[in-house]
Amino acid sequence: METVIRRFSGKGAKEFMDLLEQRAGEVEERMRSIKGFVGYTLARTGDGGFSVTVCQDKAGADASIQQAKDWIAKNAASTGVGAPEITEGSVILYLK
Asked: Which residues on adjacent β-strands are paired with residue 39?
């Protein structure tokens, strides 16, 4: 399995997290549509927030990055949020 962490901070990050919370159903639908989707978590921090996506393989992880990028461009440009800091890696242990 592969995981992707997207960290949003700085200008517009709090407003962006508010928007994600308001449109959580739409975000869920988009993420679940990714082939190989395993799980998704969205969390707030003091300066914005982060998401964690787990997919069965690298192709799914890459698709999640593109889905997020497309959604932000289409729906969140008005927040002024910048591109997230992205960290990717292979899952060693996954518990649910």
From this structure: 54
Q: Residue ranges of the domains in the chain? A: 2-90
Q: What is the CATH number of domain 2-90?
A: 3.30.70.100
Is-above-0.70 flag for pTM? Answer: yes
Q: What is the pLDDT of residue 96?
A: 82
